[in-house]
Design brief:
The protein is of the alpha/beta class. Strands 3-2-1-4-5-7-6 form a seven-stranded mixed beta sheet, covered by helices on one side. Strand 2, helix 5 and strand 3 form a beta-alpha-beta unit. The protein is globular. About 35% of the residues are buried. The structure holds S-adenosylmethionine. S-adenosylmethionine binds next to helix 2 and helix 4.
C-alpha cells in the first residue's frame, strides 16, 4: 500500500510541478500575449503548411512570432535547412524551445523578447499562430515593416485587413499572405 502511495506521488508531483510552471509562465506574460496561450500547432498542420510553401532555399530568412516550443523552427530546419529565429515571451515555452532545439541538434535562435519590439523588415517568411486580439495589433505592424514580397502564414486566425492568396483547410484554416499583393 505504502509503495503504491509513494509510486503515485512520485509520478504526480513532477507532473503537478510542470503544470505549475506552465500556469506561472502564462500568467506572467498574459498582459502582453493578450491571452495567446502556449498552444502548439499540430504536426499535420505543419506538414500541410510546408507542402504548400513548396521547396524553399536554405537562405530563406524565417521568423516564428511566438514560437512556443520551437517546433516550426525545427521543422523548417529539417525540411529545408532553414535556420530561423523564434520570439517567445513565455519563459516556460522559451526554456522548452531551447531544450528541444538542443536535444534535436537544431541551432535555430530563440529570443526571449516581445516581437512587437522587433523590426520585422528582414524576413522572407513570417509565421504566427496568435489570437485575434494580438493579430489586430500585428496586422498594421506587418503592413509597415514586412518587406515587399514577404510571405506571411497565420495559423487558425486571419490577419485583419489582409487578403490571403491561399487558405488551406487542415483541421483549422491556415492563411497565406504575400506583402504587396
Ligand atoms: C498559440 S502559441 C503558438 C506556438 C507556436 N508558434 C506553434 O505554432 O506551435 C502562441 C505563442 O506566442 C507567444 N506570444 C504571444 N505574444 C507574444 C509576443 N508579443 N512576443 C513574443 N511571444 C508572444 C505566446 O507566449 C505563445 O507561446
Amino acid at each position: 500500500m505504502k509503495l503504491f502511495i509513494f509510486g503515485t506521488l512520485a509520478l504526480l508531483l513532477p507532473l503537478a510541478f510542470l503544470k505549475l510552471c506552465y500556469a506561472l509562465g502564462t500568467v506572467l506574460v498574459l498582459r502582453r500575449t493578450g491571452g495567446a496561450l502556449f498552444v502548439s500547432t499540430s504536426r499535420a498542420k505543419i506538414r500541410a503548411m510546408l507542402e504548400a510553401l513548396g521547396p524553399l532555399s536554405p537562405e530563406t530568412s524565417f521568423v516564428d512570432l511566438g514560437c512556443g516550443d520551437g517546433r516550426l523552427l525545427r521543422a523548417m530546419y529539417r525540411r529545408f535547412g532553414i535556420l530561423g529565429v523564434g520570439y517567445e515571451i513565455n519563459p516556460w515555452a522559451y526554456v522548452l524551445a531551447r531544450l528541444k532545439n538542443f536535444l534535436a541538434g537544431v541551432p535555430a535562435e530563440i529570443r526571449r523578447e516581445d516581437f512587437f519590439a522587433a523590426n520585422l523588415k528582414d524576413y522572407d517568411l513570417i509565421f504566427c499562430y496568435l489570437f485575434p486580439d494580438v493579430l489586430k495589433d500585428l496586422a498594421p505592424k506587418l503592413r509597415k515593416e514586412a518587406k515587399e514580397g514577404a510571405v506571411i502564414v497565420s495559423a487558425n486566425f486571419p490577419l485583419p485587413g489582409w487578403k490571403p492568396y491561399l487558405v488551406l483547410k487542415e483541421e483549422d484554416p491556415i492563411y497565406f499572405y504575400r506583402k504587396g499583393t
